């Protein structure tokens, strides 16, 4: 190697190092593969505000919904790995779809650098008021009795959604056949349950807590390791004797694969600080979520565990997504 070539390579290396050291020197975008207004969007906007203050550059949220998060996830997977395009999405993107769909335009591990899981999202098993069941065990007994007739009907957001998988976990734990009924979202699902169209439903705590407190529906149990402050009298499935029903959604922040290590160090450090902020944790809790910070390795381990779990559930229940 000539002296001139060595000098040129050294100059390029130093330039790249300086560029990474200066990160960020322009606006950063957080892609959310959901429509505005939901919990994922709210968490992303909260993080964007805090990141703006920490990094000294504008951080904006761009909503790119569609195809069960595939549109936004693929766009981020293909984005330049420079730290200026990030994504906040839920376990639907990282573990549910990879477990149920035979081919995806991204790999949940290899396509991204994993910054951290920032919130856990337990779901709740709900019952219409007329159903003669006050506990998950009583609902399970009813489900077994109804199995020969096609099974109790329970509401979901569609095949492969978090409510669907949770409902199948419950059915398998109960040793019963149940019939999932898909709805377009929480509003439609709550209306159907309140109106008695379905016996049970699975939904987020944030979407259902107000209806439970108003006495329009009943909450039987929540997933997760602890009771939710919004429904303090509702036991966890583990407390109710059904620990197998364990689906807990979550939200994770990623960057495209091959984002430079110095940039990732900056993002990891800043996000760890943000998720220790008392105001941030309070606001996340107000969204009926549990604030956490599970960095890279723990994030990847969560993905691996859930893909194996959901694949087994889907195989037993015959769930597939084309």
Automatic annotation (TrEMBL):
Q: Which family does it belong to?
A: Belongs to the UPF0065 (bug) family.
Organism equals Achromobacter animicus
* Signal sequence segment: 1-21
Q: Which InterPro entries match?
A: BUG, Bug_dom1
A Pfam family of the record is: TctC
PANTHER family in alphabetical order:
BLR1237 PROTEIN, TRICARBOXYLATE-BINDING PROTEIN
**Identification of the protein by name:** ABC transporter substrate-binding protein
Which controlled-vocabulary keywords does the entry list? Signal
